[in-house]
């Protein structure tokens, strides 16, 4: 424009002066007239105005200056800690960004390449998440296996070998004693020279307890000192974050580092916990950190949560070696928003994670988990009765565990016990180690125990669970190949059964006190161990029943003498599924995970029967799974999609302000000053404020977030000349005329949400709750005949639902 040319000419004339005094004199003579002309000309030319309008004033110049600065105000559009994101706004931002990229891609080849790169970035991010999660899972598996064996002894040929790997290369290992080789020495052999005797037993016992205490002490110290968020399972918090809640640092680099290290230490200490749940947390940490490499995920909280949903699938994939089960787990159990695009990317990321873990081969058996098994004997229809019994047991155990564990965790939060987390961890570890060592089934790790219980006995097995007495081939048929017919239990099997009964009691009790302590602690393996023990006991009982009473009507025509009728390992697997389902209330994903573990299609029906039975029984005793119960215990604002709203209340019954409360805090669109706005914000703690035309009409204009308001005003004070407390704050599109000598106004229309979600005061609350769930709202304004009455936030709904369920409404802690 002509104004821009004239302005630039004036600048060149002044800058070309060789004498500094002349320059100062010229600027002093022209004064503010010259500066105002230049700035106005520049701004109007950027804004697309011509120079001939003749309506350029000082105040308009200031307003244009602020509009120019609005686009780069740091912090606007972000959220404070322990707040809920605005899903609608985030999705709208992403649509606008995508629309802009698409329109620019038609203009040039470089813009087209940028568009292709933007579309491909999601798949690249999934590849990186899968690779990093698979690599970390392999590292955790190898290290935990080695440190678990370190409690019992050391490999002389290389201290970095665990017990199994140490004896692989030995030429002196027999099949009956495959775990004994000259290269592996117990601590008693190194100290007193003999593995047998009372002194050797005591030394091994003491060192087992000392190693366990050392590992747990290191774990709880690292968590306390460097990353308090690294404790626990992490799945309740992941569910809350995926619903839109902000917890700064929960998925940060320090949490990832400390969680990885302390997870190995906690599992190696022998505590009754698993690594599968925390692996979901580790994968989500990897995803959150990698999101910062891509702009569209770094700057959009909703897009980032799509990546975290896929990362949760990767966590289960690398923990169980079940990629499809991981995707279904994310869809069924943890995700809040799961579009079809996220399903495809979750599948790809889970595939990459499983492939990476398979390439590392942490267990040396070409499998992704330690307890992979394959059953070959078919099951009979009548076996559904004991399978359903295992489902009932799993449901009862799940309900019992949730109630007792939540009661204990609540006691920890409300008493002095919570002030001494290190002492609690050490006491639980001491009790676990002292009671676990005498029993070989509690001494071994949870994964090894499940592998032992899932095992289908063959002719080559030397386990006590496969110690059967010899049978007379002339009477009951002959054995062929590697298949074993049902046989009478031997003395070793009876001893193993008694040890399993004691192990079951021990696991049931100690897991209640272990889950929730201040170290990384998963629940999958302990729950599966409890169910596997119960299932193996029932399976052996059914096997002996079939052997001693083949003439019973229920067994006739099914179990002939000399046949392999009952597979106790299958009962253990069904029991593990039932107990895990009773605790977590998983259904489809759990069956698929267990199916991928066994590789047998024919066992899906028993697994489904046990899973549904356990869920029905557990739901009859309590509607919440363990993760939902811990979310409610911690007071997170999580609106459970599975919970039905069955009360007949209206929006006016829940909204604030109530009749006894002060009037609703609102901002007006064009007659409040900066000082008045700052006073209102300082006097209240709300996360946002409705903007109305005036206090008299209360006609709604929009909604502005507290954080955006404060950041924008602070930015205006720093970068816009003349802004003082008396400056007007303008939200309107057509501001009123300003006095020529008054301070410049601050235009805030760019941060105003012009389409806030509203409901009328007579809207049923069941509809309001459904809207909040499906749209991910953080608040909704309530109107009556177009006049603003109040506001409903997610916290108000949760408090109201708690009150209607006769629970403490103040248990909802966060806004």
Automatic annotation (TrEMBL):
Family annotation (SUPFAM superfamilies): CBS-domain pair (SSF54631), Clc chloride channel (SSF81340)
InterPro entries according to UniProt: CBS_dom, CBS_dom_sf, Cl-channel_core, ClC
Annotated PROSITE patterns: CBS
Domain CBS: residue ranges: 655-721, 751-809
GO cellular component terms listed in the entry, alphabetical order: early endosome; endosome membrane; Golgi apparatus; plasma membrane; synaptic vesicle
Subcellular location as annotated: Endosome membrane; Membrane
Gene3D superfamilies: 3.10.580.20, 3.90.1280.20, Clc chloride channel
Transmembrane feature ranges: 120-140, 205-230, 251-273, 279-295, 307-331, 381-400, 420-437, 496-517, 523-548
Pfam families noted in UniProt: CBS, Voltage_CLC
Any one GO MF annotation of this record: voltage-gated chloride channel activity
UniProt keyword Ion transport present: yes
Keyword annotations from UniProtKB, A to Z: CBS domain, Chloride, Endosome, Ion transport, Membrane, Transmembrane, Transmembrane helix, Transport
Bilayer disposition of the protein: Multi-pass membrane protein
Domain of life assignment: Eukaryota
Family affiliation: Belongs to the chloride channel (TC 2.A.49) family.
Protein name: Chloride channel protein
Organism: Denticeps clupeoides (denticle herring)
């Amino acid at each position: 424009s002509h104004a821009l040319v004239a302005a630039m000419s004036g600048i060149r004339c002044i800058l070309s002066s060789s004498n500094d005094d002349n320059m100062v004199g010229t600027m002093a003579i022209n004064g503010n007239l010259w500066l105002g002309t230049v700035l106005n000309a520049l701004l109007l030319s950027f804004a697309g105005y011509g120079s001939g309008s003749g309506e350029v004033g000082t105040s308009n110049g200031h307003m244009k200056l602020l509009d120019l600065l609005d686009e780069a105000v740091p912090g606007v559009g972000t959220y404070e800690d322990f707040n809920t994101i605005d899903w609608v706004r985030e999705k709208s931002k992403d649509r606008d960004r995508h629309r802009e990229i698409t329109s620019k891609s038609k203009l040039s080849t470089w813009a087209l390449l940028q568009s292709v790169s933007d579309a491909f970035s999601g798949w690249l991010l999934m590849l990186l998440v899968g690779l990093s999660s698979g690599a970390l899972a392999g590292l955790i598996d190898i290290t935990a296996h080695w440190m678990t064996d370190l409690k019992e002894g050391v490999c002389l040929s290389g201290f970095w070998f665990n017990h199994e790997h140490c004896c692989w290369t030995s030429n002196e290992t027999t099949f009956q004693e495959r775990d004994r080789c000259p290269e592996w020495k117990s601590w008693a052999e190194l100290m007193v020279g003999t593995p047998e005797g009372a002194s050797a037993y005591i030394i091994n016992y003491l060192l087992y307890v000392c190693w366990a205490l050392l590992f747990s002490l290191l774990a709880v110290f690292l968590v306390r000192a460097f990353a308090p968020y690294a404790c626990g399972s992490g799945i309740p918090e992941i569910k809350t974050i995926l619903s839109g809640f902000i917890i700064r640092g929960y998925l940060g680099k320090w949490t990832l580092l400390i969680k990885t290290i302390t997870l190995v230490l906690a599992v190696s200490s022998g505590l009754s916990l698993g690594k599968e749940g925390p692996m979901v947390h580790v994968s989500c940490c990897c995803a959150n950190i990698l999101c910062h490499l891509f702009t569209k995920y770094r700057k959009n909280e909703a897009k980032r949560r799509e990546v975290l949903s896929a990362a949760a699938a990767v966590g289960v994939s690398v923990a169980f070696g079940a990629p499809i089960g991981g995707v279904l787990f994310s869809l069924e159990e943890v995700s809040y928003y799961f579009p079809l695009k996220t399903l495809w990317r979750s599948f790809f990321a889970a595939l990459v994670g499983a492939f990476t873990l398979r390439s590392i081969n942490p267990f040396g058996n070409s499998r992704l988990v330690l307890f992979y098994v394959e059953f070959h004997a078919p099951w009979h229809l009548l076996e559904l009765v004991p399978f359903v019994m295992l489902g009932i047991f799993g449901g009862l155990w799940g309900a019992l565990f949730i109630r007792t564990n939540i009661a204990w965790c609540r006691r920890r939060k409300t008493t002095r016990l919570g002030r001494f987390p290190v002492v609690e961890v050490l006491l639980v570890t001491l009790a676990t180690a002292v009671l676990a060592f005498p029993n070989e089934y509690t001494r071994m790790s949870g994964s090894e125990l499940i592998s032992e219980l899932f095992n289908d006995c063959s002719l080559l097995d030397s386990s006590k669970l496969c110690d059967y007495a010899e049978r007379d081939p002339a009477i009951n048929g002959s054995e062929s190949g590697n298949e074993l017919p049902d046989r009478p239990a031997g003395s070793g099997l009876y001893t193993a059964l008694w040890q399993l009964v004691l192990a079951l009691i021990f696991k049931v009790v100690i897991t209640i006190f272990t889950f929730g302590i201040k170290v990384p602690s998963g629940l999958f393996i302990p729950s599966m161990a409890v169910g596997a023990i119960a299932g193996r006991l029932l399976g052996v009982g059914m096997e002996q029943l079939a052997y001693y009473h083949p003439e019973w009507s229920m067994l006739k025509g099914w179990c002939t003498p000399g046949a392999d009728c009952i597979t106790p390992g299958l009962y253990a697997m069904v029991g593990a599924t039932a107990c895990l389902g009773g605790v977590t209330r998983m259904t489809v994903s759990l069956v698929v995970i267990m199916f991928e573990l066994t590789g047998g299609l024919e066992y899906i029906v028993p697994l489904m029967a046990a899973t549904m039975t356990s869920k029905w029984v557990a739901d009859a005793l309590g509607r919440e799974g363990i993760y939902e119960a811990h979310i409610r215990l911690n007071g997170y604002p999580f609106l459970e999609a599975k919970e039905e709203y069955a009360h007949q209340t209206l929006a006016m019954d829940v909204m604030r302000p109530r009749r006894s409360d002060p009037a609703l805090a609102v901002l007006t669109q064009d007659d409040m000053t900066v000082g008045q706005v700052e006073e209102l914000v300082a006097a209240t703690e709300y996360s946002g404020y409705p903007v109305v035309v005036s206090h008299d009409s209360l006609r709604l204009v929009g909604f502005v977030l507290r954080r955006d308001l404060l950041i924008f005003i602070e930015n205006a004070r720093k970068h816009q000349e003349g802004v003082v407390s008396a400056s007007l704050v303008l939200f309107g599109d057509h501001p009123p005329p300003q006095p020529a000598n008054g301070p410049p106004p601050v235009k805030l229309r760019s941060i105003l949400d012009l389409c806030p979600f509203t409901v009328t005061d007579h809207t049923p609350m069941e509809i309001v709750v459904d809207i909040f769930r499906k749209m991910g709202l953080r608040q909704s304004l309530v109107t009556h005949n177009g006049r603003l009455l109040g506001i409903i936030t997610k916290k108000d709904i949760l408090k109201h639902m708690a009150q209607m369920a006769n629970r403490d409404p103040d248990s909802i802690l966060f806004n």
